[in-house]
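Hi V.,

You were right to ask for the full record rather than a summary. Here it is.
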Amino acid sequence: MDKIRAHIIVSGIVQGVFFRANTRSKAQMLGVTGWVRNRPDGTVELIAEGERERLKRLTDWCHKGPPCASVSKVDVRWEGYSGEFQKFEVRY
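Predicted structure:
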């Protein structure tokens, strides 16, 4: 089982469209841990850890997002797995 971390920044119309709540639901469905939050610049940031294939599915989902989102860009930085998270949560 190959575990890894993804640091993702999603740009576009991604705040005020339930992006964080939907990201948490998708992450929980995939069994990955970490967090998601809105950033002051209008982007959404997330850190997610888990099996590589599951994180790939989450990053693919981030390119589309929930129905009301309009994603223009997704930046993904792959990092080493730390195991520091117990669940996936929305941060404020």
